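Weekly structure sync, notes
Attendees: PL (lead), two postdocs, one rotation student
Agenda item 3: pending single-chain targets
PL asked that the sequence for the first pending target be pasted directly into the notes so everyone works from the same version. It is reproduced below exactly as submitted, 237 residues in total.
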Amino acid sequence: MCRNPFFIFSRYKSFEMKVRIKKILQPPIVQIALDMPSVSFLRAILRQIPISDRIIVEAGTALIKKYGVKIIRLIRRELGDVFVVADLKTQDVGRIEAHLAYEETADGAVVSGTAPRHTIEEFLRESNNLQMWGIVDMLNVYDPLKVLGSLCVLPDIIVLHRGIDEEQQKTLSLPLINKIKKKFGAHLLVAVAGGVNLESAREALSAGADILIVGRYITASKEPRKAINEFLSLIRR
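Predicted structure, written out during the meeting:
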Protein backbone atom coordinates (compact mmCIF):
# COMPACT_ATOMS: atom_id res chain seq x y z
CA MET A 1 0.00 0.00 0.00
CA CYS A 2 1.25 3.47 -0.92
CA ARG A 3 1.58 5.77 2.08
CA ASN A 4 2.84 9.35 2.01
CA PRO A 5 4.74 10.40 5.17
CA PHE A 6 3.45 13.90 5.92
CA PHE A 7 5.94 14.44 8.72
CA ILE A 8 9.65 14.85 9.22
CA PHE A 9 11.65 13.10 11.93
CA SER A 10 13.85 15.40 13.96
CA ARG A 11 17.43 14.32 13.85
CA TYR A 12 20.82 15.12 15.25
CA LYS A 13 24.05 13.30 14.70
CA SER A 14 27.76 13.53 15.17
CA PHE A 15 29.48 12.28 12.03
CA GLU A 16 31.39 9.69 14.08
CA MET A 17 28.22 8.09 15.47
CA LYS A 18 27.17 4.67 14.21
CA VAL A 19 23.46 5.30 14.81
CA ARG A 20 22.39 8.61 13.34
CA ILE A 21 19.46 10.79 14.31
CA LYS A 22 18.14 13.45 11.97
CA LYS A 23 19.38 16.95 12.62
CA ILE A 24 16.71 19.57 13.20
CA LEU A 25 16.34 22.27 10.57
CA GLN A 26 14.65 25.52 11.58
CA PRO A 27 13.85 27.66 8.51
CA PRO A 28 14.61 30.01 7.00
CA ILE A 29 18.05 28.66 6.15
CA VAL A 30 20.92 29.61 3.85
CA GLN A 31 22.44 26.72 1.91
CA ILE A 32 25.89 27.51 0.53
CA ALA A 33 26.43 25.62 -2.71
CA LEU A 34 30.08 24.75 -3.32
CA ASP A 35 31.32 23.82 -6.81
CA MET A 36 34.97 24.77 -6.61
CA PRO A 37 37.72 24.35 -9.22
CA SER A 38 40.32 23.32 -6.64
CA VAL A 39 40.61 21.98 -3.10
CA SER A 40 42.67 25.01 -2.06
CA PHE A 41 39.91 27.36 -3.25
CA LEU A 42 37.33 25.19 -1.48
CA ARG A 43 39.26 25.38 1.80
CA ALA A 44 39.56 29.15 1.45
CA ILE A 45 35.78 29.49 1.12
CA LEU A 46 35.06 27.02 3.93
CA ARG A 47 37.21 29.09 6.28
CA GLN A 48 34.99 32.10 5.57
CA ILE A 49 31.81 30.32 6.70
CA PRO A 50 30.71 31.31 10.22
CA ILE A 51 29.24 28.84 12.69
CA SER A 52 25.45 29.12 12.53
CA ASP A 53 22.45 26.81 12.90
CA ARG A 54 20.98 28.70 9.93
CA ILE A 55 23.68 27.52 7.50
CA ILE A 56 23.77 24.37 5.38
CA VAL A 57 26.81 23.53 3.27
CA GLU A 58 26.29 21.76 -0.04
CA ALA A 59 28.86 19.61 -1.77
CA GLY A 60 27.73 20.52 -5.28
CA THR A 61 27.31 18.12 -8.17
CA ALA A 62 30.36 19.37 -10.06
CA LEU A 63 32.47 19.23 -6.90
CA ILE A 64 31.44 15.63 -6.24
CA LYS A 65 32.04 14.65 -9.87
CA LYS A 66 35.57 16.02 -9.69
CA TYR A 67 36.62 14.77 -6.26
CA GLY A 68 34.06 12.08 -5.36
CA VAL A 69 31.78 11.90 -2.33
CA LYS A 70 34.84 11.77 -0.06
CA ILE A 71 35.05 15.54 -0.48
CA ILE A 72 32.36 15.66 2.22
CA ARG A 73 34.93 14.52 4.77
CA LEU A 74 37.17 17.45 3.86
CA ILE A 75 34.22 19.75 4.57
CA ARG A 76 33.80 17.97 7.92
CA ARG A 77 37.45 18.49 8.81
CA GLU A 78 37.11 22.21 8.18
CA LEU A 79 33.65 22.85 9.66
CA GLY A 80 32.98 20.02 12.10
CA ASP A 81 29.32 19.16 12.64
CA VAL A 82 27.88 21.51 10.05
CA PHE A 83 24.85 20.19 8.14
CA VAL A 84 26.19 18.86 4.81
CA VAL A 85 24.12 18.06 1.71
CA ALA A 86 25.49 15.81 -1.02
CA ASP A 87 24.03 17.09 -4.29
CA LEU A 88 24.23 13.79 -6.16
CA LYS A 89 21.27 14.48 -8.49
CA THR A 90 20.84 10.71 -8.62
CA GLN A 91 19.25 9.28 -11.77
CA ASP A 92 19.52 5.55 -11.07
CA VAL A 93 20.38 3.05 -8.30
CA GLY A 94 18.72 5.30 -5.74
CA ARG A 95 19.31 3.08 -2.73
CA ILE A 96 23.01 2.64 -3.50
CA GLU A 97 23.70 6.33 -4.06
CA ALA A 98 21.84 7.36 -0.90
CA HIS A 99 24.03 4.93 1.03
CA LEU A 100 27.20 6.34 -0.58
CA ALA A 101 26.32 9.81 0.74
CA TYR A 102 25.53 8.40 4.18
CA GLU A 103 28.85 6.54 4.39
CA GLU A 104 30.69 9.81 3.79
CA THR A 105 28.75 11.48 6.67
CA ALA A 106 26.24 13.52 4.63
CA ASP A 107 23.20 14.77 6.55
CA GLY A 108 21.14 15.08 3.38
CA ALA A 109 21.37 13.88 -0.21
CA VAL A 110 19.73 14.85 -3.49
CA VAL A 111 17.94 12.75 -6.08
CA SER A 112 16.85 14.25 -9.40
CA GLY A 113 13.14 14.80 -9.95
CA THR A 114 13.66 13.61 -13.53
CA ALA A 115 14.73 10.15 -12.33
CA PRO A 116 12.29 7.23 -12.64
CA ARG A 117 9.67 7.20 -9.87
CA HIS A 118 10.98 3.91 -8.49
CA THR A 119 14.51 5.36 -8.25
CA ILE A 120 13.26 8.43 -6.39
CA GLU A 121 11.27 6.31 -3.97
CA GLU A 122 14.16 3.91 -3.32
CA PHE A 123 16.46 6.88 -2.71
CA LEU A 124 14.00 8.45 -0.26
CA ARG A 125 13.26 5.19 1.54
CA GLU A 126 16.95 4.53 2.06
CA SER A 127 17.50 8.11 3.23
CA ASN A 128 14.69 7.67 5.77
CA ASN A 129 16.11 4.35 6.95
CA LEU A 130 19.51 5.96 7.44
CA GLN A 131 18.04 9.02 9.22
CA MET A 132 19.37 11.23 6.43
CA TRP A 133 17.34 14.00 4.81
CA GLY A 134 15.99 13.01 1.39
CA ILE A 135 15.88 15.85 -1.13
CA VAL A 136 14.33 15.97 -4.60
CA ASP A 137 15.72 18.53 -7.06
CA MET A 138 13.12 19.63 -9.61
CA LEU A 139 15.59 21.00 -12.16
CA ASN A 140 14.03 20.56 -15.63
CA VAL A 141 10.81 19.12 -14.15
CA TYR A 142 7.81 20.68 -15.91
CA ASP A 143 5.28 19.86 -13.18
CA PRO A 144 6.81 19.35 -9.70
CA LEU A 145 3.35 18.94 -8.14
CA LYS A 146 2.64 16.01 -10.44
CA VAL A 147 5.93 14.33 -9.57
CA LEU A 148 5.34 14.77 -5.83
CA GLY A 149 1.78 13.50 -6.17
CA SER A 150 3.01 10.31 -7.86
CA LEU A 151 5.37 9.34 -5.03
CA CYS A 152 4.61 6.83 -2.31
CA VAL A 153 7.41 8.34 -0.24
CA LEU A 154 7.69 12.11 0.15
CA PRO A 155 11.01 13.91 0.43
CA ASP A 156 11.97 16.07 3.38
CA ILE A 157 12.93 18.89 1.04
CA ILE A 158 12.00 19.82 -2.52
CA VAL A 159 14.24 22.14 -4.55
CA LEU A 160 12.70 24.49 -7.12
CA HIS A 161 15.75 24.91 -9.30
CA ARG A 162 16.55 27.17 -12.23
CA GLY A 163 19.75 25.93 -13.84
CA ILE A 164 22.73 28.18 -14.52
CA ASP A 165 22.39 27.65 -18.26
CA GLU A 166 18.77 28.86 -18.27
CA GLU A 167 18.95 31.83 -15.91
CA GLN A 168 18.55 34.34 -18.76
CA GLN A 169 15.43 32.64 -20.15
CA LYS A 170 13.62 31.37 -17.06
CA THR A 171 12.44 32.85 -13.76
CA LEU A 172 12.11 31.07 -10.42
CA SER A 173 8.65 29.50 -9.98
CA LEU A 174 7.84 31.22 -6.69
CA PRO A 175 4.02 30.78 -6.86
CA LEU A 176 4.65 27.02 -6.73
CA ILE A 177 5.89 27.30 -3.15
CA ASN A 178 2.45 28.08 -1.75
CA LYS A 179 0.79 25.42 -3.93
CA ILE A 180 3.21 22.76 -2.69
CA LYS A 181 2.72 23.68 0.95
CA LYS A 182 -1.08 23.73 0.61
CA LYS A 183 -1.16 20.30 -1.02
CA PHE A 184 1.57 18.48 0.89
CA GLY A 185 1.80 20.32 4.20
CA ALA A 186 4.19 22.75 5.84
CA HIS A 187 6.54 19.94 6.93
CA LEU A 188 7.71 19.56 3.34
CA LEU A 189 10.44 22.19 3.18
CA VAL A 190 10.85 24.13 -0.06
CA ALA A 191 14.23 25.36 -1.26
CA VAL A 192 14.91 27.70 -4.16
CA ALA A 193 18.06 27.62 -6.27
CA GLY A 194 19.46 29.27 -9.38
CA GLY A 195 21.15 32.66 -9.40
CA VAL A 196 19.82 33.58 -5.96
CA ASN A 197 20.90 37.05 -4.86
CA LEU A 198 19.63 39.33 -2.09
CA GLU A 199 16.78 40.70 -4.20
CA SER A 200 15.48 37.32 -5.38
CA ALA A 201 16.05 35.93 -1.87
CA ARG A 202 13.66 38.53 -0.42
CA GLU A 203 11.05 37.58 -3.01
CA ALA A 204 11.52 33.87 -2.29
CA LEU A 205 11.16 34.36 1.47
CA SER A 206 8.02 36.43 0.95
CA ALA A 207 6.64 33.60 -1.18
CA GLY A 208 7.26 31.11 1.65
CA ALA A 209 10.63 29.56 0.79
CA ASP A 210 12.32 27.72 3.65
CA ILE A 211 15.82 27.38 2.20
CA LEU A 212 17.81 29.76 0.01
CA ILE A 213 20.46 27.91 -2.00
CA VAL A 214 23.19 30.42 -2.83
CA GLY A 215 26.27 29.70 -4.90
CA ARG A 216 28.14 32.28 -6.94
CA TYR A 217 26.86 35.29 -4.97
CA ILE A 218 28.97 33.96 -2.11
CA THR A 219 31.71 31.87 -3.72
CA ALA A 220 32.54 34.44 -6.43
CA SER A 221 32.45 37.34 -4.00
CA LYS A 222 35.60 39.22 -3.04
CA GLU A 223 34.32 39.06 0.52
CA PRO A 224 32.53 35.72 0.99
CA ARG A 225 32.01 36.16 4.75
CA LYS A 226 30.35 39.53 4.19
CA ALA A 227 28.08 38.00 1.53
CA ILE A 228 27.11 35.17 3.88
CA ASN A 229 26.35 37.60 6.68
CA GLU A 230 24.11 39.60 4.34
CA PHE A 231 21.96 36.52 3.83
CA LEU A 232 22.00 35.67 7.53
CA SER A 233 20.81 39.20 8.33
CA LEU A 234 18.06 38.84 5.71
CA ILE A 235 16.65 35.58 7.06
CA ARG A 236 16.76 36.78 10.68
CA ARG A 237 14.53 39.76 10.02
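Discussion points:
- The longest helix spans residues 117-129.
- Residues 3-18 have pLDDT under 50 and may be disordered.
Action: rotation student to compare against the earlier draft before next sync.
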